[in-house]
Amino acid sequence: MLLACPISWGTGQEGDVIVLDGEEWQLLGAPLERLDSLTYHHLRDILGWESRSTGNWRGYVAYWSVSDGMLCLEKVVKYDEDLIVEKVVDGEEYLVSEKVATECDYGTVCGILEKYVRNGKVCASWLSGEMIAGKGGLVRYVHMGFNRDYEEEIVVSVAQGTASLSQVYHNRSGLGPQEDNRLDTYLKAFPTDGYGLEKGRYLFRFKYDSESCKWIAKLYQPPVLEERDALEKDFTDYLNAYNGELRDFIRGEWTSSRVFSFPIVI
Predict the structure, then answer these.
(1) How many CB atoms lie within 10 A of CB 161?
(2) In 3D, which of 121, 112, 104, 134 has the Cα closest to residue 29?
(3) Which segments within 1-46 are labelled E, that is strand?
(4) Which of 21, 56, 71, 246 has a CA 20 to 30 Å removed from the CA of 32?
(5) What is the spatial distance between Cα 217 and Cα 95, in angstroms, rounded to a whole number?
(6) pLDDT, tens only, 93-103
(7) Residue 180: pLDDT above 80?
(8) DSSP strand E in the chain: where?
(9) Distance (Å, rounded) from C-alpha 231 to C-alpha 125?
(10) What is the model's pLDDT at position 8?
(11) What is the pLDDT of residue 7?
(12) Does the structure show a pLDDT above 50 at 4?
């Protein structure tokens, strides 16, 4: 079970950080958001967390480690209001806005989360489920919450704070930069003659059907078109004849969750 946070984030979010063998990994989750509501809001009010960016509605980044088999909180860094500072560039003075991050007092955090403190550290014993930790370049990205994958990933499994780590997975995208350009050229070459289409922009959306193991094309624009059925069928057949690999290899499995849109201008 992947951990889901109670807040619905409609844009891509900065994750927490987990330090493993001295390396920082992006933790695609926010364990503190899973605290009970009263404790969480008390923590938020005392530490002054406020959203300063659409990319981090929480207003903080927590740093974690796995210590003595437990997921432990190392520190919390909060974002303060942007400060106007003076900078000199090529002899010219400029006033610029800078984001300021400050570390929260760990003693205060421990005081609020006293019942979770063990050997001087906050251990996430309120938490059970799985989270993904990643590093390297992005392989897949959806502009919502933590819906993305990195070149290297580890599954962090937590059972009432007790943490275990999977092997390191090496992910890859079926559509790398060169393959993306090749597919783009291929789709633009789709023959539109014979449909009686008027000049304009035709927007298709492609989705992989796991039952038929085929890609399906749907025409989204224009909304009304007599040739829609024939155009969708022929474009579906055309796309499935493409000999490139469109699936992603994520955590040891081929996945076809990718949905993409493509416009053709006639």
Answers:
(1) 19
(2) 134
(3) 16-20, 23-27
(4) 21
(5) 51
(6) 766 666 677 89
(7) no
(8) 16-20, 23-27, 60-67, 70-89, 92-103, 117-118, 121-123, 128-141, 148-159, 162-165, 169-170, 201-209, 214-221, 248-250, 253-255, 259-265
(9) 55
(10) 44
(11) 44
(12) no
State pLDDT tens for residues 201-221.
999 999 888 788 889 999 999
**Which amino acid makes up residue 228?**
R
Q: pTM to 2 decimals?
A: 0.72
172: tokens are: 């890859």
**The predicted structure's pLDDT at residue 132:** 96
Q: What is the Cα–Cα distance from 109 to 40, expressed in whole angstroms? A: 11
Q: Is 257 helix (H, G, I), strand (E, B) or coil?
A: coil
**Mean pLDDT across the chain, nearest whole number?**
87
**110-114, long-range: CB within 8 Å, 24+ apart, which pairs?**
112/39, 112/42, 112/43, 112/46, 113/35, 113/39, 113/43, 113/73
Map out the domains of the chain as residue ranges.
16-170, 177-265
DSSP bridge partners of 131: 156
**Helix, strand, coil share (%) of the chain residues, nearest 5:** 20, 45, 35
Cα(104)–Cα(102) distance, integer angstroms: 6
Query: Sign of the CA dihedral 212, 215, 220, 221?
Result: negative
184 forms beta bridges with none
Long-range contacts of 222-231 (CB under 8 A, 24+ apart): 227/195, 227/196, 227/197, 230/195, 231/195, 231/197, 231/202
pLDDT at 174 over 50: yes
Q: CA 20, 21, 22, 23 torsion: positive or negative?
A: negative
